[in-house]
Amino acid sequence: MRISALAAAADVPLATVKYYLREGLLHPGTATSATQASYDETHVRRIRVIRALTGPVGLSVQQARTILGLIDDPGVDLYATLGRAVGALPPSVEAPTSDDPDPFPRARAALAALGQVYDPQFAAVAQLEAALAATEAAGMPLSDDRLLEYGRRLREIAAFDLERMPHEPHAAVEYTVLGTALYEPVILALRRLAHQDVASRRELG
Amino acid sequence: MRISALAAAADVPLATVKYYLREGLLHPGTATSATQASYDETHVRRIRVIRALTGPVGLSVQQARTILGLIDDPGVDLYATLGRAVGALPPSVEAPTSDDPDPFPRARAALAALGQVYDPQFAAVAQLEAALAATEAAGMPLSDDRLLEYGRRLREIAAFDLERMPHEPHAAVEYTVLGTALYEPVILALRRLAHQDVASRRELG
DNA sequence: TGTGATTGGATAGTGTTACTCTCCAATACT
DNA sequence: AGTATTGGAGAGTAACACTATCCAATCACA
């Protein structure tokens, strides 16, 4: 398959395929001559993953490159790999100043209330802190009972996710990293739709 | 309070306050002379909401303007207002061609499986369709049991949200619109952290 | 009452991002 | 033989969220 066939198969403009190659999101084809290379199904699949990540998931090309890099070449430690992947996911928050004795007061309190263990280095802690700070700044702080409700339901979802994790290490990384990112838009859409469903039932009942 | 005091109180650059005024995200102060206007606490709060929406929630200035406009001036119909608000939230998906007999096959099947009623005009339907299409394109389609699990937990969360909705109409709009947007980053962060917590318990146990 | 700072407002400039366009010489097809 | 397409490089573009510069009209204080 030549580059124009690849572009057609993945349904993206040729110039965009060239752009992904240049940016290192897409692995080069195997060169068959000085001005020709051939591409295969792995390239088509890769482009589809790139579009999924930069589209619904909302990643920048830079973030997508990081995520894809982790899948292609995961470290030995699945936990550390997932940590790096979560750090690349939006919302990106900058690391706190290292001399701050309590950089995440809201997140710390919330996780304590939930009884959850966590690694303060994990990017999601800073993300939770920023999200909680935003709710307060906007005048709608997260109440304790809401935190408990959300935390409980999301832990049930997380437990389900982990039950389905493949055993083979490479597949596990791909499942975990892509599953974290790809299912998030589904979760948000389902909550928005559930609001509508619950509201309509309440009106009628 | 003059404009520089407002900028200091809300902790944003003065030039940015002027930008928000120009873009219509922030209501003008009351003019006290040809070159002076005075601002109050409502302006400070508004800027905080703007920063919350354009920061952790990840809205563009354009999207934030739409959301804020709906809160300021909601229609008589809460349902329609929420629908418009959800349409302004990312991920933005374009409306399907009107002559397509079945524009949302995946979302339709998913909502049928969940037994949920929905309005096909509701933007979240198109968002769910795009999110499901992305999972398939990336080679990780959402299985039926996962859909059921996610749908059930999110409906529980949605029911909780609605229970806490204020009765006064204006407060209800603000709660619903801001609550949908502001709590989403919290939900994603909590899922990411729950993965870590559940995984660590599993290893130890 | 002078005088330096600040104001609201308008206009233009900046850096980033995700493409998109244009060229090019070197093949490939017919 | 001649037209078309290729991979690759470079520059261009449009949108975005500020940010900087100006300006004449006040204002605040000495």
UniProtKB/TrEMBL annotation, chains A, B:
Gene Ontology MF term list: DNA binding; DNA-binding transcription factor activity
InterPro entries, A to Z: DNA-bd_dom_put_sf, MerR-type_HTH_dom, MerR_fam
Pfam families membership: MerR_1
- Say yes or no: keyword DNA-binding present: yes
Q: Where is the signal peptide?
A: none
Q: Does the keyword Membrane apply?
A: no
SMART domains according to UniProt = HTH_MERR
Q: Which UniProt keywords apply?
A: DNA-binding
What region holds the HTH merR-type domain? Answer: 1-70
Task: List the protein's name.
Answer: DNA-binding transcriptional MerR regulator
